[in-house]
Amino acid sequence: MASAALLLPLLGAAPATAQSSENSLQQAFAAAAAEYHVPQSVLLGVSYLQSRWDTHGGAPSVTGGYGPMHLTDARTALATDPHHSEGTEDARGDSARPALHPAARLPSSDELPARLTTLPRAARLTGLSAGELRTDPAANIAGGAALLAAAQRGLGEPLSADPANWYGAVARFSGADDTATAATYANDVYDVLRTGEERTTDAGRPVALAAQPDLAPRTAQLRETGLRTASAAGTECPASVSCEWIPAPYEQFGDNDYGNHDVGDRPASPGIRYIVVHDTEGGWEGVLNLVQDPTYVSWTYSLRSTDGHVAQHVKAKDVAWHSGNWYVNAKSIGLEHEGFLALPDSWYTEAMYRSSARLVKYLAAKYGIPLDRQHILGHDNVPGPTTAAVPGMHTDPGPYWDWRHYFELLDRPFAATARRSGGLVTIRPDYTANQPVYTDCVGQGQACAAHGSSEVRLYSDHDEKSALITDVGKGSPPTTDVNDISSRVSTGQQYAVAGQWGDWTAIWYLGQKAWFRNPKEQPTAVPGAGQVVTPKDGRASVPLYGRAYPEVSAYPADVPAQAVSPLPYTLPKGQKYVAGDEVPGEYYYAVTFSTDSHQVVVGDDQYYEIQYGHRVAFVRAADVKVMSSTS
User: Fold this and answer.
1) Are 19 and 127 part of one and the same domain?
2) CA gap 505, 260 in Å, rounded
3) Given a cut of 50, is residue 9 above it in pLDDT?
4) How many CB atoms are located within 10 Å of the residue 349 CB?
5) Alpha carbons 293 and 283: distance in angstroms, whole number
């Protein structure tokens, strides 16, 4: 008790209200810090990077991590089906080649790395049961404090009251097995300590961490950790993330069959205009095995949830097979995040969000990619390239990816850009408070656990009892299934306003007037202004496309012309849709292992990318007129 009394005044993180009943979580941090002689600010900083202090109701993260300290027991979170293996989508998305439907399965293993088994170790250190550590936030925090203290002692360091003396222990707490990843994690924690944080958690508990702007950690402690030195050679990553090169193979097999990506000369030809955000639907080790299989598919980067570690598999100059749309693949970089779409409480760590945001900022700056939702796409925003492909397109990362927080980390927060008369809205619900009902996460017809969401449901009238919006391309009636994006808009997407009724706003969506609740006291969208497209005068409607391909006359004799096939959607007269880039029709011909015949065909026809439904689409510039949303 005497030592705790000496320690507590030095912690400097608990606000004056910490003793109130509503601040029980803050009090739990103070109690655990005192019991295990860990600076409370360090405990709070580590927890913030793991979970932003959220408890998630005792549900595990994507890697089996529980509670505010993300104590892991990954046996609860191993999946059996990888991201591209259900056979509904050709990840290459090019009708010039036979469809590729990989049927790989993730390997099973009884061997789990230490970073995925911290909860059992915390149980041994504290004497608390695994059940308590999973479900009781105070016990979970105590378990994290015990692990930090054990890491500090393991380095031969005293249990100092000075947070600067805990850099090595924080690095070890990350679970990383190499110095670069551990250092990146520790640097993030100390950035949080320097800037301070304050927020209300998902359980409605306020937690605060006072800023320590002059804090300078003893980074030399990293040498004491005994972690391996991993090489970043060959990677294209910012220095602010830990990155390693684990190449996807470019190999030939069979009769001119090859995998698992195409060699290119980007950004010279073709250019790079998109970043596509995916989730893996599988655990880290298994997913890495898959991307190294030449008969499987590929993506550019994988990101690990526990610590934000990045693996690069395909050079940015080359074309990975990941989005299911060849036009998008040829002009994009694909990021796979360790996670699962249909498990709402299988949450992503703050460490991975931050690492991903830093990587995206780096790539966007390098290749001139605008940081908005028509260029930073979810896989669920990529259009089907043809009518036949539309029903099988993927829906990840899904409604539980926190786009609002992600874009705040990108330093591009979604904000109102006009008054109410601007003519557009940017979807921006409060993630935690916005909890639409979804079904089929764990069983057909069963309601998913209530959880915050980035997505807002759309109705055919200003009434939640009215019918959901129908997607004619899907070929079946709309549902509340977690994978059914027919009647959902996502945070950051922009649409033209089509009407207003009390607390309801209507937008033009999939050729229909779609309504969503948008109350003034808790708005789900903010007003904006910009450029929109509408059919040219005299046109009742114009066709839409899933890829911006050149006109037939643009193809040279040695390249088979690709069909400019319209999707089962139209842009009707009188409707407006937000306009993105104006681009020429373009096709990257790459259907052989040898690159001798590879070439980029560019046409005269111009297209606009538009936000049409949940997915983007393309419309010929010759068919529409561009105007201000305020007109």
Assistant:
1) yes
2) 45
3) no
4) 24
5) 16
Number of H helices, E strands in the chain: 12, 28
- The predicted pLDDT at position 88 comes to 66
Domain boundary among 196, 224, 252: 224
Q: Which domain holds residue 204?
A: 2-73+117-224
| Nearest Cα residue to 270 out of 330, 329, 334 | 330
Tens digits of residue pLDDT in 301-331: 999 998 999 999 999 999 999 999 999 999 9
Q: 446 and 357, same structural domain?
A: no
> Is 453 in contact with 431 (CB distance < 8 Å)?
yes
DSSP 352-386: HHHHHHHHHHHHHHHHT--SSTTTEEEGGGSPPSS
Under 8 Å between Cβ of 121 and 83: no
Token pair of 205 as six digits? 């508990």
What is the arithmetic mean of pLDDT over 258-267? 94
Instruction: Report how far residue 104's alpha carbon sits from residue 119's, in angstroms, rounded to the nearest whole number.
Output: 31
Continuous H helices in 384-514: 403-409
Tell whether pTM > 0.85.
yes
267: preceding bond cis by omega (within 30 degrees): yes
Is the pLDDT assigned to residue 3 strictly greater than 70? no
For residue 17, pLDDT over 70 is answered with no
With CA atoms as reference, report the closest residue to 83 among 405, 349, 321. Answer: 321
Distance of CA 461 to the CA centre of its chain: 31
DSSP 8-state assignment for residue 565: P
Pair (164, 209) in one structural domain: yes
Does the structure show a pLDDT above 60 at 79?
Answer: no
Peptide bond into 217 cis (omega under 30): no
Whether residues 137 and 45 fall in one domain: yes
Tokens encoding 527: 């007003």
- Residue 162's closest CA among 300, 71, 297, 42? 42
Number of domains in the chain: 4
